[in-house]
Give the backbone structure.
Amino acid sequence: MSEETGPAVQDFYPEHLAWCYGCGRLNESGYQFKTRWDGDETVTRFTPAPYHTAVPGTVYGGLLASLIDCHSTASGAAGLYRAEGREFSDPGRAHRCVTGTLTVRYRRPTALGPELEVRGRIIAVDRRKVTVASRIVVGGEVTVEADAVVIEVPEDFGAGR
Amino acid sequence: MSEETGPAVQDFYPEHLAWCYGCGRLNESGYQFKTRWDGDETVTRFTPAPYHTAVPGTVYGGLLASLIDCHSTASGAAGLYRAEGREFSDPGRAHRCVTGTLTVRYRRPTALGPELEVRGRIIAVDRRKVTVASRIVVGGEVTVEADAVVIEVPEDFGAGR
């Protein structure tokens, strides 16, 4: 069982960077993934729709990659806050990362139906670059393992578009 | 300019394996990606919707990963047909692959608006395992590079679900 509580990192993305189809709180057509700390791990939860299918009975790999993608950028931002000893809601710069490289290893089929749990660990923070290792768990079983290198965007990135 | 013509490999997936959210011809809620030969390369084309956004003005990385995912499994199937000297429509086994490992390198932002072109090459066919290298091109510029290892599923995989 998870004890994660508190705000999601996506709730603090700057407004002009909060339109992501996966995790932007302002994108009403999107998934609105939310990522929170649970101790030293980051957690994102999502329940797929019945049509998010690969082979019948299993979750579409592209959706799993999408989950990992947004979970990783969010974990990267969370890692940057923590490296500064800050909470998401503390005054100062709001962190926002984009993905550099994403590697997804589909270990076994992911059952379609139950809530998916993505759990991540911050492997390294190197200035603007954060390395995140994640796994997708469903029904207590790890079905997907992933690594991502994410990069913090400059503070004015995407502003004025 | 592309000269690709002819049928898409997804049009020949067995019916019980044609429900993928990305590329299943029977999934009316999905993207219905189609992949064809163009000489020695495989090609998949897709025009994102305005809400498929990452940072405003750019395409959502999860959608790009989804495109690569289905393009790679389709390319793997196409590669298996070609290794046998067969057209998709020839009598005999219909090939269908799933993804083992997917690596996506986001080289630069992908502009949201124009049609995306995914182009792939078959790097190796080793029995049921096919390695595919792909790139996403928009407006003549490569924005994403990717590698995938895909695996042919057994002929009765997913049947009866």
Observations:
- The longest strand of chain B covers residues 141-152.
